[in-house]
């Protein structure tokens, strides 16, 4: 059995004949930070969507900690231990920062969701619903203990971004700045205590000082031993935080290796610089 945390083999996904992800294979080891970079439209987000179960692959396999997850839906994949954030930042707008983070812990609950395994069985899915409702109203010693654990977990995640989210813990997400919404999203993902944290452009739309702050937070997560699969356009950040960098172009992996090696790979330089040259020529025409 592989000692990798995430193992992706021959992954494929097409959209109306367009091969967005064209038979890629890669892995993430426990505690490793792996970044996927590449020009626009090269298949990075589609890869994250496949790994997190947002869409289904048309071929290949995805294994997390030894379990096949490529046929599971995103809720089951979250239970397996993958948490993700989205390119455009997704939070529950009317929920407070604390409540958004608490939602992230839902997939980890056991005492408050004793029949959650039945949720996958269409005819029996009302049983866990009624069970959860009953426990929420009446409560059990175990569910009360779990309630305290949730409150501690929310505090711990807010503490991660204390200076920014601490004063805003009761504010509705719609009232937050864009950067704070993205921080809330990362805190919610971390509240799941994921084996693998999947981040899609966590600094998109952020200025330089906000980006530096995110870089420091990613370095802190890495120091905690958190495995991360990251898609990011800001190459300075990628080079500083990654153990390994995967470069995609046209749905394929064109280079892979340590940041310094990949940075000087001729195929990578061509994919980036050549594309820019083409865009300029197109603009000039
Ligand atoms: N739902 C979809 N329907 C049709 N085509 C899609 C869909 N999702 C992605 N694609 C196409 O698949 C290709 C890869 O897209 P993807 O979003 O994965 O690229 P990307 O590398 O993440 O790009 P960017 O850096 O711009 O976010 C693109 O040509 C895109 O237009």
TrEMBL record:
GO molecular function per UniProt: ATP binding; ATP hydrolysis activity; L-isoleucine transmembrane transporter activity; L-phenylalanine transmembrane transporter activity; L-valine transmembrane transporter activity
CDD domains: ABC_Mj1267_LivG_branched (cd03219)
Origin superkingdom: Bacteria
Biological process terms in GO annotation: D-alanine transmembrane transport; L-alanine transport; L-isoleucine import across plasma membrane; L-valine import across plasma membrane
InterPro entries membership: AAA+_ATPase, ABC_AA/LPS_Transport, ABC_transporter-like_ATP-bd, BCA_ABC_TP_C, P-loop_NTPase
GO CC field: plasma membrane
Residue ranges of every copy of the ABC transporter domain listed in the record: 6-275
UniProt keywords, alphabetically: ATP-binding, Nucleotide-binding, Transport
PROSITE patterns documented for this protein: ABC_TRANSPORTER_2
Protein name, per record: ABC transporter ATP-binding protein
UniProt organism field: Subtercola boreus
